[in-house]
Design a protein that fits this description.
The complex is a heterodimer of chains A (about 110) and B (about 110). Chain A is mainly beta. Chain A has no helices and eleven strands. In chain A, about 35% of the residues are buried. The chains are: A mainly beta (about 110), B mainly beta (about 110). The interface between A and B is medium-sized, with 24 and 21 residues.
Amino acid sequence: DTEVTQTPKHLVMGMTNKKSLKCEQHMGHRAMYWYKQKAKKPPELMFVYSYEKLSINESVPSRFSPECPNSSLLNLHLHALQPEDSALYLCASSQGPSDTQYFGPGTRLTVL
Amino acid sequence: SQKIEQNSEALNIQEGKTATLTCNYTNYSPAYLQWYRQDPGRGPVFLLLIRENEKEKRKERLKVTFDTTLKQSLFHITASQPADSATYLCALPRSARQLTFGSGTQLTVLP
């Protein structure tokens, strides 16, 4: 199984809401990533988890809070977002830090 | 500062022709370079990885070259088909876990 799944596919939220994005992989990969992608731009790295520990935070605002409950799951908790945070949020995983990354289909987030 | 440039935002070619996409980089000394395909509203899909000691890599109709002297990679799709229409991204490792993507080239193969 070479699939990374993400839920929900679409999410609309107000600036005062709290929501979570979920990502799951069953490939036994030990590195998991969150990316943000705006229209017609490349994916931008947000967070990297390695062996369930946060290893990289690319100076992301605290209104985004990642969590890795176990080696297969990655969450992104959202709180008090701004309209400019509207984007496609992509999860990815890889076997090791320098290996090919497998991406999920993304969650299209709209902040009103 | 580190920079990755892909030759053009958009490239249109006729079906059956070879598409050639360019990825140039500065202030990197990458051990490898990757190419991904992305369809609208979907996550990128890995296509090929080429290492610094490899000049060329092939996979079916795809061919990638890597010139570390020119700091350039070329990505070729031979006998292109409309189904090859997508955005193609090159990616370089900024560190062990940090991939940086180029801005992408949107390829359209016209029937």
